[in-house]
Amino acid sequence: MRVTRLLHLVRNRRMVQKFDDRMVAADVVEAVLEAARYAPSAREAQPWRFVVVQEALARHQIATGAFNHPLVKTAPVVVVCCARIHSHVSGSGRPSFPMDLAAATQTMVIAAADLGIHSSWIYGFRESVIRSVVGIPDDVPVVALFCLGHQAGLSDLPERRPRADVIAWDRWRSDDARSRLS
């Protein structure tokens, strides 16, 4: 298998345990956000809207709304990822904006890794608190919090499940079916 620079970045991304207190350079934050602007979205609707929060009191209030999540508490940059519009609805009846924002957020993760910065995205928060802190209108969904910074200390590479446990070709394979085929 050919290992590209992108695959190398994705494979070697480390889980953040805690951010240190160094600020992230403005041009790095801008580059990460620029990458997100080019993420794919359903019908290229680009429904995202990002609120970059660096002010200490606002970050503290956001952390409170995120159940005092340690990464939100220590991140020097918290990006509140919102869906500017409710975007398209697929044939299944599901709105596309959660997937669109997930694609944009994952693009930020990879861009940050490419720039030597660590990141994490958080889905557990009280939306009303986040909305209040940064002044987001009631009709705009808050989808995720994206934390950006320099990691404090070292962490191990996350373990990955074996390929056979996560990839099937042509048909779903259960563990029982696979063991019977072996």
Features:
alpha+beta, 4 strands
Short structural description:
The protein is an alpha+beta fold and 182 residues long. It is built from 8 helices and 4 strands.
3D structure, described in words:
- The chain is α+β, with helices and mostly antiparallel strands.
- It has a single domain, classed as NADH Oxidase (3-Layer(aba) Sandwich), CATH 3.40.109.
- It contains 8 helices and 4 strands.
- It has a 4-stranded antiparallel β-sheet with strand order 1-2-4-3, with helices on both faces.
- The longest helix is centred in the middle third of the chain and has 18 residues, at 97-114.
- The protein is globular, with a radius of gyration of 18 Å.
- The mean pLDDT is 90.
**pLDDT averaged over residues:** 90
How far apart are the first and last residues' alpha carbons, in Å?
24 Å
Biggest beta sheet summary: 4 strands, antiparallel
The top-level CATH class is Alpha Beta
Q: Any idea what the CATH superfamily is called?
A: NADH Oxidase
Report the CATH architecture.
3-Layer(aba) Sandwich
DSSP E strands, number? 4
- For the record, the count of structural domains works out to 1
Helices, strands, pairings?
Layout: H1 5-11, H2 26-37, E1 48-53, H3 56-65, H4 70-74, E2 77-83, H5 97-114, E3 118-122, H6 127-134, E4 142-149, H7 163-166, H8 175-181
Antiparallel strand pairs: 1-2, 2-4, 3-4
